[in-house]
């Protein structure tokens, strides 16, 4: 047993296949040896590793950790002899690959756990053709010799595929992907090839193509996949975006091509969904900034929300100049990115799911601030933003209640604004949450009313206390006759809100002329740069002390 790590059989099997990885562990020493191909592919520190279980566990996909640790834990606790499960692990390229892992535990002459040996097999390299769609896999794409040709590669992605699955189900998602693959196959001619890449993404390899012909092929793809009719007659409308990379003998590194494709597709989906973009250094720099932002944000959250701060914009009495409250607005400076604005970093927080912990931090800070100002300035309302996703969190209402109780403030002075950053998919469920929050004494506001999600249908379904009229209807009211439509819309919304007993905040008041017009229409609160931009806590307190409202 002492030579188990240096057994000649290990040497013989270690390089048997590029798609199979072996390992053996001396349990008592907690020392393991891994085949060289495993070390290289998974970027391990070396062939011999102490405490490999913890290191390997960090490489496993978060969704698969329970499966892995439950199974391996049963083996190392002596409950069972054999390890067998499938999971995803991240490789040196930062990509997750599916593995089938099998292993056995051997005991020594005293019946103690002594040696654990196993084999991991790449499941994604077993098939030349994708089992779902029937087209070539991405590993066949990797086999292409880019150095002997020139042309363009397209990475195609279905926009909002997760939403499609949520609406129609996984069965229809699979049918949709299969139908798209067939369309791509039919479009390919000559040496052109279609490949299944990851999830809802496909690759089109276009040897000899230039930008104009590649764009023409993309337009054909977009036209022929504008909707998919399922086998049972459902029509699913879809949108496809594409990232494109040119290759030639001088630019043929596969990893660089794939990296460029992913960067460009991600950029297109964020900035010009449903179109095609060609890789450029400018796009790479913008994506690098986004990646740095993500890392900076994650680090800030891990370090007790360091760098996050609340600024405050006054809410002014529409019948006078007194400041009746404020909206708390999130600001942030990272370690590496110092000049990011909410319109840039908030979508990143939402995409990663980090908007939930940050939103809770905002809520607690707003409640805490309300308590402090209540003692200094009396009754003062604070509005703070809550996204649709945050409202749906299981414990959000309980944590809201707990914060109010902890700081000893009245819910009546707190207004939760539903932002339009996440589309409301289930207003019925949200209505129940709103009713519960309002029953506890808090107030609900619908932000940016008149655009996006804030339709008349949702106004009917969602119980709210006030609406905030979106600034695009307001800012240019004083600029002549062609803004009669804006005046009519605002007047109609005010009339409707009075009938529904909703208070109204008019945003975007930026000059005295607009202020005069809006005040004459009878809203409840005014907000805009004419009174103040969002300012830090100290500046807002000076405004409160001086009583300046405009």
Low-confidence segments, ≥5 residues, pLDDT <50?
none
> Which outline best applies?
globular
Describe the largest sheet: 8 strands, mixed, barrel
DSSP E strands, number? 22
Main-sheet strand order equals: 15-16-17-18-19-20-21-22
Summing up helix and strand content along with how strands pair, one would put the structural category as alpha/beta
Q: Please report the number of helical segments.
A: 19
Briefly say what this structure is:
The protein is of the alpha/beta class. The protein has 19 helices and 22 strands.
Question: What's the arrangement of secondary structure elements?
Answer:
Elements: H1 8-14, E1 20-26, E2 31-34, H2 36-41, E3 48-50, H3 52-59, H4 65-76, E4 82-90, E5 96-107, E6 113-122, E7 136-137, H5 138-142, E8 151-158, H6 161-168, H7 170-187, E9 193-196, E10 201-207, H8 211-224, E11 227-229, E12 235-237, E13 240-247, H9 254-271, E14 276-278, H10 281-302, E15 308-317, E16 323-332, H11 342-352, H12 355-377, E17 381-386, H13 388-391, H14 396-407, E18 414-418, H15 427-439, E19 443-449, H16 456-461, E20 466-469, H17 484-499, E21 503-506, H18 512-519, E22 525-526, H19 537-546
Parallel strand pairs: 7-9, 13-14, 16-17, 17-18, 18-19, 19-20, 20-21, 21-22
Antiparallel strand pairs: 1-2, 1-6, 2-3, 4-5, 5-6, 8-10, 8-13, 9-10, 11-12, 15-16, 15-22
Helix pairs in contact: 6-7, 9-10, 10-11, 12-14
